[in-house]
Amino acid sequence: MIDFGFSRTESACIDLDRHSDRLLNRLIERDPDILTCMACGSCAATCTAGRYLPMNLRRVILHVQRGNTHSEILQTAHCMFCGKCSLVCPRGINTRPLLAAIRTENTNPKNTAQ
Ligand code: SF4
Ligand code: SF4
Q1: What global pTM score does this model have?
Q2: Which pLDDT score is estimated for 68?
């Protein structure tokens, strides 16, 4: 295949057969701030882990909000809990507890079962 130096982005369509809002609802119970994320990307731009590893909090939150509880969310395993993302978040989201909750709740089969 010819390498054009770029690739097509993954479809942003929601696959209703795979959609599950259980993880999102559990996170809202813990802290409803996740609903205020406006996907600005400031957190991803400053992320310590994202500089070297596949870790993008903006994308993780988007996938949680869309109910795509698949491998993208496993990126949180690379988080070092440095807290830089919370310092730059314009919505003031306390991202470290949110990241910890995503990790914990995403490993609960009750939240990800289809
Ligand atoms: S706490 Fe995690 S997601 Fe936030 S900047 Fe640090 S490594 Fe990145
Ligand atoms: S910086 Fe805050 S509002 Fe912006 S994408 Fe990250 S969590 Fe969402």
Answers
A1: 0.83
A2: 78
